Every structure is written in structure tokens, then in C-alpha cells.
Amino acid sequence: MFRIGLPIGLSSFVSMAIFSVIGFMVGTLGIVPLAAHSIAGNINWATFVIPMAIGGAASIRIGFMVGAHDYAGARAVGATAIKLSLGYALLVSLLLILFRHDVVALYSQDANVLAMAAVLILIIAVYQIADATQGTVVGALRGYKDTRAPMIFALVGYWLIALPLAAYFGFGDYGVYGFWTGMAIGVALVAAAGGLRLISTSRNHDRIKRFSGL
Q1: Long-range contacts of range 56-60, CB-CB < 8 Å, 24 or more positions apart?
Q2: Which of 201, 189, 187 is closest to 148 using CA atoms?
Q3: Cα(214)–Cα(199) distance, integer angstroms
Q4: Which of 32, 46, 129, 138 is spaced 20 to 30 Å from 89 by Cα?
Q5: pTM, full prediction
Q6: DSSP letter, residue 69
Q7: Counting beta carbons within 10 angstroms of the beta carbon of residue 202, is it exposed (0 to 12), middle (13 to 18) or buried (19 or more)?
């Protein structure tokens, strides 16, 4: 239990804590960037709920099939979950792009905040595709009880790649847009690494048995 649960807890911590750090950094840019950042973050979390739920469902289904030694079925569940999340993310991204001004208008009446938030929505539209993928992939890997690799991916991707890039772009010429761009790059790398790990683990029966204690 500890071997599986500790990496999950640490992975969740490093994934969430970086948003607090980024928030403090954006706050040094002024009230308007911070307000726009808060709007973007709220929209991002609201749209991420579905992929997170799909990842949780995939974890349960894959765990069940691994216990039944149905490894082909487990792979199929993982693939289906990723397709569902990607389809959802693409649809939501399109809607956000088309109706970004209407969406941000729900949060503020300040023209400067709205203008900045509307641009951030364009970055969020790309960001959430990667975020939906990584969220689902992590859930699928947990179904295989493969929890250490996602923890390492999160630590490296968010803290050693995303945070430095976000600070470089954000404190450079791009402001709050740079912070989200750096985050998007980091999340995309985490999603890619997680996807490759899922492919590898789902095909490695010995690894699956070792993780599951079968």
C-alpha cells in the first residue's frame, strides 16, 4: 500500500504545488496579470475534471483486467480512455477558442483583464489537450500499479522543465503568457513521457506481474 500510495501522493503534490508557485510569480507582475491568470486557472481546472474522471475510471477497469490476467483488455481500456479524453479536450478547446470572449466576460468587467484573459484562453486551449492526455495516462498507469514513473515524470516535467521555462518566459518579454507557455511545454513533455511509459508497461507482462504481485 505504501509503495503504491506514496508515489501517488507525491505526484499529486508536485503537480498541484507548482500552480501555487506560478501564482506567486505572476502576482509580482501586477493585479491585471494576476486576475487574468486566476481566470485562466479556474477555466483550466473546470475543464480538467472530465479527463481526470476518465483517468480514474481507466485505473479501476485496468486494475480489474490485470487481476483477471486480461492484458489485451487492459490495453484496450487504456487506448479507449485516451481517445475519449483527447476527443473531449479537442472539442472543449475549439469551443473555448470560439467563445473565449464570452467565457472570460463571466469573470470580470475590467477591459484590461478581459483582453489579457482572452489571449490566455488560446494558450489554455492547447495546454488542456496535453493536460487531459497526461491526466488520463497517469490514471491508466495507476491501474497497472505503475506509480513511481509518473511521479518522476511529474517532478522532472513540472519542477525542472516547466517552472524554469515559465520563469524565463514570464519574467522576460512575455509576462503572464510566458508563464502559461512554460507550463504547457512541461505538461506536454509529461504527457509524452507518460504515454510512452504506458505503451511500454502495457506490453510488458513481467513488469505488470511484478507491480501487481501476481
Answers
A1: 56/139, 57/81, 57/139, 58/136, 58/139, 58/140, 58/143, 59/139, 59/140, 59/142, 59/143, 60/143
A2: 201
A3: 20
A4: 32
A5: 0.91
A6: T
A7: buried
